[in-house]
Structure formats: structure tokens, C-alpha cells
Design a protein that fits this description.
The protein has 3 domains: 312 residues, ABC transporter type 1, transmembrane domain (ABC transporter transmembrane region fold), CATH 1.20.1560; 180 residues, 3-Layer(aba) Sandwich (Rossmann fold), CATH 3.40.50; 71 residues, P-loop containing nucleotide triphosphate hydrolases (Rossmann fold), CATH 3.40.50. 62% of the residues lie in helices and 11% in strands. It contains 20 helices and 12 strands. The protein binds adenosine-5'-triphosphate and magnesium ion (MG).
Length: 580
């Protein structure tokens, strides 16, 4: 309930439509309530008195009321759909915007699958809740209370006799609704589980194939699927036992009314019309009860979804936004300094992955970072664009604390090639100019040439207009990396970060890329993460990272002289007589 209240402001822009739809719903209920009275009139004043004009007149009334009621129902549908769809669109949009503000740390915790479910099926469940509430909302209680009042009005004596039965029926419905609530919740949980298994499987379909785990996955899916089905069957069976029970109560009620009413009618206390009207009202009390059970289903789903959607809305960006932050002036090459920086991810362990890092990259220099897998190389360079915030110490850009710099202005001046090349579906050209869509053809070609991508691009049948599949599925690893490099250097960044970006490229091409970057990117500082020593030979400064600490620092020749750990790496890779 509380979670729904928090989402209520999304309905606000549609309050006129909401009110209109509820007004129409009320009109509909009131019109429906008048029908049994008219039937009573036809029987008592028309048929019994042999007065044709009353029959015709009243029938005309009934017809008009039915038409009006239908119009009101259509109007209610139109407005409630507008409210539901509009609200869902706004929630999706707000979620999307919110996710854009997530920092890397937030994205580590909310996986793609989780976010997709929140944007799709959860939003739909909330939409259904609003829509169905507007269609049933006032109608249920109005029909129920109205028909009970009108039963008393028709014949207090009969109404009192039938009242205990009504109470028992209401009790049964309330009992069912309360019992159903946890059932619906668990169905929702099983569905979640099913979705998770599905998403993991589709995302990792290749891996499943590669490791011949299809049988295992099929089994896992079957378990989840079976579980969900079983629960659903239980709920359906429980639900379906309710309708016959209610029908039984109604039938008992009708028999009672006809029997008691018949006795009264014989003694002249009650007219035939009254008996018919009374049975009609009795039937009308049951409709809303059935509607309510449907509503409770939609509510259980909707509130569970609202809770999950709110989880996203309530997540604070892990890298806080500083309102006092300044725009970073764009001068020549960037200076980057780490001052006693330590860092841990906000996970379960909070283990330090970087410890007391002191490092200075002078403008225009190249800093290479070498180290075993898991040493903390990516973690270190991810602190420079403020993707994560240092847990201790300071990162300074041009002498300014990174927390005082507006993130956007910082990112505009940095070119990043992440360790995993991510490409979007679109043309080759669109991918290269992702950071600057207005770039001219000559700029695109220049960037591609420097990244040694031009040659393979023009061999594609449509050159720069060739289509890149989602995540670059139709490209080789090395081709993806080179497109990612071209994309990063196109806007002439003041700082270029290459995270193991030439790992899938042969040594010769790598050298060509390095030379071209040297020539094309003047006024640019570089951070190059590498596994291969050949990549880092010419760097101004080489850092050897070991278990999150700087184990050695210097130029290639210095390190060869003074650092045993560097010499060891060198010898293991290039030691067999190959000289750089
Ligand atoms: N998003 C994350 N959340 C939690 N822990 C992480 C995250 N990313 C990395 N780690 C942990 O931090 C440590 C350093 O990882 P990092 O990715 O910086 O290593 P790396 O030197 O770049 O390795 P590689 O050469 O394999 O890319 C590892 O122990 C890893 O388990
Ligand atoms: Mg890495």
C-alpha cells in the first residue's frame, strides 16, 4: 500500500481523466440499480393492470437507461485506459531517466535482467492496477450498498430474513480474499524466478552451448516452470471453487425469497413485481463480490511490482552528485594525480582492491599499467572518469579534486576504451561517432585510420554504412576493439584511457595503432592498461600493480635495472632473445 502511495504522483497529471472515469462509473452503477425498479413497475402497473401504455413507456425507459449505461461504460473504458497507459509510460520514462543516473556501482547491483523486468512487466502490473481500479473501484461498493438498501426499500421483511445469508456470503468472500493474498504473492515470486532463469539462459545461450550444459539448463528451467505452474494451478483451483459456492448461496437466497415472498404475496402483503425486483437486487449484490476477487488479484500483483519499482527510484547514485561542482576548463593535455587512494567495491566483502596508490601522470605523458589479472588495473582507471569514487584519498584532475568537477564536463574530455568493447546496433559510422554524432566524414575516416580500422571497414560491402549487430556480434574481437578505439579518439580527448584495448589485435597492428595515436593525438595524456609488455615499452611511466598496490614504477630501462618483478614479466614474455 505504502509503495503504491509513493507512485500516486504519477497519476496526478491524469486526475481529470481519473475523476471523469469514476464519475461515469458511478453513473453506470446508479443506472444499473434503477433497472429492477422499472421491471417491478412494468409487472405491477402494466402487466397486472393490463395497461399497455405503461408497459411500452417503461420499456422505453429501460432501453434508454441501458443505452446510457453502455455509453458510460465506454467512456469509463476510454478514460481508464488513458490513465493506465499514460501512468505506465511516465513511470517507464522516469525509471529510464533514473537508470541513466546510476553510477557503475549501482549497475553492479541491479543486473540487466532485474532492470528489464522493472521496466516491462512490473510497469504493466502497475498500469493494470490503476486501470482495473478505475473500472471496478466505485462500482463494486455502490452496487453492493445500493442493492442492499433497495432490497430493504422493496421489502424490509424479506430483507431482514435474507440478511444472515448475505453476511455469510460476505464472510466467505473476505475469507477467500485474505487467503488469496499470499497465494498471489507466491505466484508472483515463482514468476520472477522463472524470468531470472530465462534471462540468464538467453543472455548466456552461447556459453550453455559451449559447455554442453543444455540438459542441465533445461532441467533448471523445467523446475522453475513446473513450480510456477503448480502454484498457478493451486490458485486457480482455489479461485474456481469460489464461484460455485457463491452461486449456491445465491440460489438458496432466491429460493428463500420466492418461498417467503410467495407466502406474503398470497396474503396480499407483497406484489409480484416486488418479488422480481427483490431477486434482481439479490443477484446484483453478487456481481461486485466477484469483481472484488478479481481486483484483489490485480492488487496483489500491482503492489508487489510497485515495491520493486520503488526500489529503483529510491536508489541513490553511488557516486554522489555535488551541486557545487565546477565545469572542468579544457586546456591542453590533462594532468591526473592519485593521492594516497584506496578503494573497495560496495559489495559483501568490502575488501580493498586498491591500497595507498600515489601516482602522477604529467600532461601529454603516457602511463602504462601492468599487472596480473585481478590486480586492480581496471579498478584504478575507472576512478579517473569518476565511474566509482575513491574510498580514501584523492583523485585530482588538473589539480582539482574530482569531486568538485562536474562529471559531464570531465567525461567530455576523456576518451575511454573499456576492457569489454561494447558496440550498439547501427552502422559502423554511427558507432564511431557515438560521442559526437555531428562529426564529418573526414573526421570519422581519420579516427578509423588511426585506429587501424579503415582498411577492414572499406572491405565490408557497404563500407562505413555496414550494419553492426547488437553488441557487435558480427565483428571479430580485434575489429570490435579497433572500432571502440576510433570511437574514443574521434572527439580529440585530452585524456585517453585504453583498458587492455589491443589485446585481440596482433602485435604489428598494435604498434601501428600506437604510432598513429602518437601522431594524431597531440595534447593528450594516455593511460594504457596492458597484459603484453610490448605494449608498454615506450611509455613515459610504467606502473606494475600487484594485489592492488604499486609494486614498481619507472621507465622500461629503469624497471629493467631495479625491479625484479618487472624483469620477471619481461623475461617470461620477451626474454627468449627478442629485444625490443
Ligand atoms: N564491479 C565489481 N564489484 C566487485 N568487485 C569487483 C568488481 N570489479 C572487479 N572487482 C574485484 O576487484 C579486483 C580487481 O579487479 P580489476 O577488474 O580491477 O582487475 P584487473 O587488474 O583489471 O584484471 P584483468 O586484467 O583481468 O582485467 C578483483 O579481485 C575483482 O574480483
Ligand atoms: Mg581489467
Amino acid at each position: 500500500m505504502n509503495h503504491l502511495r509513493k507512485l500516486l504522483h504519477f497519476v496526478k497529471p491524469y486526475r481529470v481523466q481519473s475523476i471523469l472515469s469514476l464519475v461515469l462509473l458511478t453513473v453506470m452503477a446508479l443506472l444499473d440499480l434503477s433497472i429492477p425498479r422499472l421491471i417491478q413497475h412494468i409487472i405491477d402497473q402494466g402487466i397486472k393492470q393490463n395497461d399497455l401504455s405503461v408497459v411500452i413507456q417503461t420499456s422505453a425507459w429501460m432501453l434508454s437507461i441501458s443505452v446510457l449505461s453502455t455509453l458510460a461504460a465506454i467512456g469509463n473504458n476510454v478514460y481508464s485506459i488513458q490513465v493506465g497507459e499514460g501512468t505506465a509510460r511516465d513511470i517507464r520514462e522516469a525509471l529510464f531517466t533514473k537508470i541513466q543516473d546510476f553510477s557503475y556501482g549501482n549497475l553492479d547491483r541491479f543486473t540487466t535482467g532485474k532492470l528489464m523486468v522493472r521496466l516491462s512487466s512490473d510497469t504493466t502490473a502497475i498500469q493494470r492496477l490503476f486501470q482495473v481500479s478505475l473500472r471496478i473501484g466505485t462500482r463494486g461498493p455502490l452496487l453492493m450498498i445500493g442493492s442492499v438498501i433497495l432490497m430493504f426499500n422493496t421489502s424490509p421483511h424479506l430483507a431482514i430474513s435474507i440478511f444472515p445469508l448475505l453476511l455469510v456470503t460476505a464472510g466467505v468472500i473476505i475469507f477467500f480474499s485474505i487467503k488469496m493474498e499470499p497465494f498471489y504473492r507466491s505466484v508472483q515470486q515463482k514468476l520472477d524466478r522463472l524470468n531470472t532463469v530465462l534471462q540468464e539462459n538467453i543472455a548466456g545461450a552461447r556459453l550453455v552451448k559451449a559447455f554442453v550444459r543444455a540438459d542441465y539448463e533445461a532441467e533448471r528451467f523445467e523446475v522453475a516452470n513446473e513450480d510456477f505452474t503448480e502454484r498457478n494451478v493451486q490458485v486457480m483451483q482455489f479461485m474456481s471453487s469460489m464461484t460455485p459456492i457463491l452461486t449456491l448461496f445465491v440460489n438458496i437466497g432466491i429460493v428463500l425469497v420466492i418461498w417467503l415472498g410467495g407466502l406474503q404475496s398470497i396474503s396480499g402483503d407483497l406484489s409480484l413485481g416486488q418479488i422480481v425486483a427483490f431477486t434482481n437486487y439479490l443477484l446484483t449484490t453478487m456481481t461486485p463480490l466477484l469483481l472484488m476477487t478479481m481486483l484483489s488479484n490485480v492488487w496483489a500483483n500491482g503492489t508487489a511490482s510497485a515495491q520493486r519499482v520503488n526500489e529503483v527510484f529510491e536508489t541513490m547514485p553511488e557516486v554522489p552528485v555535488n551541486p557545487q561542482a565546477r565545469v572542468l576548463p579544457s586546456q591542453n593535455a590533462m594532468q591526473v594525480e592519485f593521492k594516497d587512494v584506496s578503494f573497495h567495491y560496495n559489495g559483501k566483502s568490502n575488501r580493498l582492491v586498491l591500497e595507498h596508490i600515489n601516482l602522477k601522470a604529467e600532461p601529454g605523458s603516457t602511463v602504462a599499467i601492468l599487472g596480473a589479472t585481478g590486480a586492480g588495473k581496471s579498478s584504478l582507471i575507472n576512478l579517473i572518469p569518476h565511474f566509482y569514487e575513491a574510498s580514501q584519498g584523492q583523485v585530482l584532475i588538473d589539480g582539482i579534486d574530482i569531486r568538485d568537477i562536474q562529471d559531464e564536463s570531465l567525461l567530455e574530455q576523456i576518451g575511454i576504451v573499456p576492457q569489454e568493447s561494447i558496440l550498439f546496433s547501427g552502422t559502423v559510422r554511427e558507432n564511431i561517432c557515438y560521442g559526437r554524432p555531428e562529426a564529418g566524414d573526414d573526421e570519422v575516416i581519420a579516427a578509423a585510420k588511426a585506429a587501424q580500422a579503415h582498411d577492414f571497414i572499406i572491405k565490408f560491402s557497404e563500407g562505413y554504412n555496414s550494419h553492426v549487430e547488437e553488441r557487435g556480434a558480427n565483428l571479430s574481437g580485434g575489429q570490435k576493439q579497433r572500432l571502440a578505439i576510433a570511437r574514443a579518439i574521434l572527439p580529440h580527448p585530452r585524456l585517453l584511457i585504453l583498458d587492455d584495448s589491443t589485446s585481440a589485435v596482433d602485435v604489428e597492428t598494435e604498434t601501428k595503432i600506437q604510432t598513429a595515436l602518437q601522431e594524431n593525438l597531440k595534447d593528450c595524456t594516455r593511460f594504457v592498461v596492458a597484459q603484453r609488455i610490448s605494449t608498454v615499452l615506450n611509455a613515459d611511466k610504467i606502473i606494475v600493480l600487484d594485489h592492488g598496490k604499486i609494486a614498481a614504477e619507472g621507465t622500461h630501462s629503469e624497471l629493467m635495472k631495479f625491479s625484479p618483478i618487472y624483469r620477471e614479466i619481461y623475461e617470461s614474455q620477451l626474454g627468449n632473445g627478442i629485444q625490443a
